[in-house]
Amino acid sequence: MSEPSKSTDSSGMEEFGYTQTLDRSIGKFASFAAGVSYISILTGVFQLFYFGFSMAGPAYAWSWPMVFVGQLMVALCFAELAGRYPVAGSVYNWAKRLASGTSAWLAGWLLLLSSIVALGSVALALQITLPQLWSGFQMVGDGTGQYDFALNGVLLATIMITISTLINAFGVKLMTMINSIGVFVELIAAVLLILALGWHLVRGPEVFFDTAGFGEGQDLGFFGVFLIGAMASGYVMYGFDTASSLGEETKDPKRTAPKAILRAVTASFLLGGLLLFFGIMAAPDLGDPKLGSADGGLQHIVLSVLGGPFGKAFLACIVVAVVVCTLAVHAAAIRMMFAMARDNNLPFSRQLSKVDPVRRTPTVAAIVIGVLAVIPLLVNVMQPAIFTILSSISIVLIYLSYLLVTVPLLRKRLARKWPLLDDRSEAGFSLGKWGLPVNILAVLWGAGMTVNLIWPRQEIYNSVPPFEWYLQWGGVIFVASVTVGGALLYRFKIRHQTGVLAEHAAAAPVVPSADVELSAADADLASPIPDELAVNGAAPTRAS
Fold this sequence. Notes:
Layout: H1 28-39, H2 41-56, H3 63-82, H4 90-98, H5 101-124, H6 126-133, H7 148-170, H8 172-199, H9 221-229, H10 231-234, H11 242-245, H12 253-282, H13 297-306, H14 308-342, H15 349-352, H16 363-382, H17 384-414, H18 435-454, H19 458-461, H20 469-472, H21 474-492
Helix pairs in contact: 1-8, 1-12, 1-14, 2-9, 2-12, 2-14, 3-12, 3-18, 4-5, 4-17, 5-7, 5-14, 5-16, 5-17, 5-21, 6-14, 7-8, 7-14, 7-16, 8-12, 8-14, 12-13, 13-14, 14-16, 16-17, 17-18, 17-21
């Protein structure tokens, strides 16, 4: 891997075909913090520990390094792309340069849908921690009623999303300031918690080599339940591309964004892994049913080991982590909606791509994302099984959208067309000769994990009554519906209107519009769209 020493700051967006409309104020730590807060180990590990432990016991912890290695391959590919194209809605804009317009639109569409659902899922994590911190946060009933837990969770999540909407709508400076402070607190708390758990170890690492009877009597034995438990890690380690999605608002983005991506995924792996392994080794009783319960899990271990005020102080830090994770997921979703809208690739694109002239942030997109994120939460009140399905599906959509980048990137490498022939700017990060093997591993990993995530197993998609076939197959049905439906929407409607809106277009755009299906001969060569050809505020495009 090589990294040019020469500065590659790109303060303008002209080389990508856009005019600079967003506030470029994000520094190195804030860029790193955006990736870390999206992954958010204190949110994800604590929220999903109970699930992984209940499925495969202590040995499920091996899924953490396994997922890290696979996602690191993806992150390395993304870092190379971020070193050339640090643009809002990064996955969408990368796919736009690497593949057909249909693939690019699907990449953005799937990631946008998943981000909206993920925003609600992250905010819902407050229900797992806040009532354990103080019983007064259980504002609906006492937690024992049939719908107390679910309804209270929706109430807390709605409040959190409302706060996140206000902060993100106010401007990126306020969001990144709060996010950076929160991430600093999260990192310090993680280190202290690791040290505290390490001080209270009651067993050795041999516990991770014992299947403890999990998987006995099942078709695939322990391997089968391990694949299910591995989702607890797979559901956490993603979103590192957020650092690049904020690239238009980052200083020296071609050098800053790639480093932020790699540092975020590596730091999250190290701290999250130590929390996971030390937590299991410090648990007073691995047979305690609370460890595999949604209202217990790793939080229960922390309270049991540290007790009293110390345990609750760390729970408070987890709340901080959930807050900044919500902010980061919201911010990433806003940038994706904005990026697609300024290409006129969404309904009401002109409104959704509007940038506040004072705060220089997509305020309308921030509000719309917030409102849309609350809607799926309402399903959780009466049908938590359906919301669980939606949450699981949202992760499948993320892995699919990542594949829509890594697969065409691999095709370019195999055809010796990477870097793209029309790209003559200096890259801020390059994999060099390692690019091809890393890219192959990234594709294989993404495909394997997608199959594992969408596999219609009852433990994932229909774990609680009523047991219905359409719930168990809900993942396959929903993913197929939004993918096929999205492709048809684009092919029959959206592609006929696509083109950079006039208020966002650079004087001489040099990138192809999102719906351009390039032939093999001109796949890497795009002609500028003359300004005088703009019609109704959007530049016309060549549809296949």
